[in-house]
Amino acid sequence: MAKQEDLFKNVVSHAKEYGFIFPSSEIYDGLSAVYDYAQNGVELKKNIREYWWKSMVQMHENIVGLDAAILMHPTTWKASGHVDAFNDPLIDNKDSKKRYRADVLIEDYAEKLNIKAQKEIEKAKSRFGDAFNEQEFITTNPRVVEYLSKKNEILARMAKSLDAGDLDDVKLLIEELELACPDSGSRNWTEVRQFNLMFGTKLGASADTAMDLYLRPETAQGIFVNFLNVQKTGRMKIPFGIAQTGKAFRNEIVARQFIFRMREFEQMEMQFFVKPGEEMKWYHYWKETRLKWHNSLGLGAENYRFHDHEKLAHYANAAADIEFNFPFGFKELEGIHSRTDFDLKAHEQFSGKKLQYFDTEENKNYVPYVVETSVGLDRMFLAVFSKSLQEETLEDGSTRTVLRLPSVLAPTKAAVLPLVKKDGLPEIAKEIMEELKWDFNVAYDEKDAVGRRYRRQDALGTPFCITVDHQTVEDKTVTIRHRDTMLQERVAITDLKNIIEKEVSVRNWLMKM
């Protein structure tokens, strides 16, 4: 646990030191759970967004994009259920004065049981080798059975209580499990109560006439209210999808763990409209497809897992999370939900407008069902960044900090370095940079010894360093150094574009799916 905490601290400090993420309004002591993406962070974030967009929209003929407004008519949120049901269970510790989500406290305890079970499984794997039957061991080993059974019982009871609105039983469960405040160790809890997560605002010229609005808590509703506009103008046929990326806002009870849970964040969502009765087929299709997308980035298949929901949202008949192994454990990265026809029917009811699809094959109108994929862009950033940040011991005993970002996502694809600041080398280096920047984001660096410049680029996640030396003047070749292997090779200047393109192209990475 201490090692994980140290890793997380390194992630936060590295993100600031190397210009990825700054605390917002830092000169005024910051604003809780709000962050600014710095010069390198904004490039990495943009590259993640574009990698998702290319895969989700441009590679699918039946999926189109949308950019809906953040401010929407307030009845939107009444229809969607957010006004009445967008709540989290809140609990305070009386001694530490710290506030927590009651469900997260319980889920964290359940995850500890799961970790204990996995440790038993790993020990058995090591002991029995190739002869190990994991499934049999999980169902017969008394300790594993006990850990997993208790985990499932706890989560099922919590889900049932939350569904029924029985907050007294949620508190009773916390007491029975003897859950303590993570900060103080105190078990002196308040009652559990519901807390609505939406930010309110006003629209109007004066306080007397202003309309009460909300900052959108999700981007999905902008898609639903535009369903018919997009379907008709795009002549879309079922099944089809509408995707968008954009900001959403939630007044989180506990906004901690850096950019994992923020009050202002960005989502990448796609709503896929299907025939009623076919939603489960597409639900399983998108579960599989989205996991393939994540794995295409090469962060390690062992760092992902599915978590099927015990407690379903009011709009869903099936839901699963793709969880990622963050420095603080497995947590939700992306959600895949079968939303039924709840949203379109609700907006029909509240607006008085028909939101139906005319199926020419069946010669009838119907309200489509919806399968949603929703990934947090900020969480995706944190997943990529935290898994890529590594301390490496070299053959000579020295260490280096390297940010092994998937090269397709790296903010800067190559750094051009003149060996010395004389003899015409800077001029040649700048000519190379001028040529490459038409196709890639490249940097120029002439400060410090070349070895220190290599280390700086390693820490920034730059896949290639191109060194211009005196031999370059003679034969138009340069040394290109690879970040991950530190291998250096001599190549012609004219070959640089192809070498970099082969490594960083979206096409080559997405072809891994």
Mean pLDDT: 92
Number of helices: 18
Would you state the CATH class of the largest domain?
Alpha Beta
Question: The biggest beta sheet, please?
Answer: 7 strands, mixed
Q: Measured on Cα atoms, how large is the radius of gyration?
A: 26 Å
User: Could you name the CATH topology of the largest domain?
Assistant: BirA Bifunctional Protein, domain 2
Q: Runs with pLDDT <50, length 5+?
A: none
The CATH superfamily of the largest domain turns out to be: Bira Bifunctional Protein, Domain 2
Which term fits the overall shape?
globular
- Beta-strand content estimate: 15-25%
In short:
With 513 residues, the protein is α+β, with helices and mostly antiparallel strands.
Question: Can you offer a commentary on this structure?
Answer:
Catalyzes the attachment of glycine to tRNA(Gly). It comes from Flavobacterium bernardetii. The strands form seven sheets. A seven-stranded mixed sheet has the order 3-9-10-16-13-12-11. A five-stranded mixed sheet has the order 20-19-21-22-23, with helices on both faces. It has a three-stranded antiparallel sheet with strand order 5-4-6. The two termini are 33 Å apart. The longest helix has 27 residues, at 102-128. It is built from 18 helices and 23 strands. The chain has 513 residues and is α+β, with helices and mostly antiparallel strands. The chain folds into three domains: 45-72 and 211-386, Bira Bifunctional Protein, Domain 2 (BirA Bifunctional Protein, domain 2); 87-196, Herpes Virus-1 (2-Layer Sandwich); 398-510, Anticodon-binding domain (Rossmann fold, 3-Layer(aba) Sandwich), CATH 3.40.50. α14 links the parallel β19 (414-418) and β20.
